[in-house]
Amino acid sequence: GGTVIKGPVYIGSNVLIGRRCVIGPYTTICDGVTIGSMTYISRSIIMENTDISNHCSVFESILGSHCSLEPGVKLPAFNIYGGTIKVLIKDKMIDSGRMYLGAIVGDEVKVRANTVIPPGTIIQPCTIVR
Hints:
The protein is an all-beta fold. Helix content is about 0%, strand content about 35%.
């Protein structure tokens, strides 16, 4: 009850979306994904069999398959200090030229409760983020 889906959105098969969620435009949710209550996702790609718990926010991000976001995880897409988003690639900070860019999260990543992943962060597969 109370969930809002603002298209265009693609939702695969066997997807469970909790109560009072908002799924914003330009979002792809692949097969077997579970989204907990009061979670906001927009302009993101969520790959198969990923579990996003209650009270999470995912903006302009890519989550790999078989990931787990515990309650209260935030993936913001803007720099609170202003300016474009910088991305660390091969030990070098690269300016993305974008004002909005979330995280890129590899397959089988577990993000612990209430963690905030800074914009432009790349998380390698099979990582636990605390």
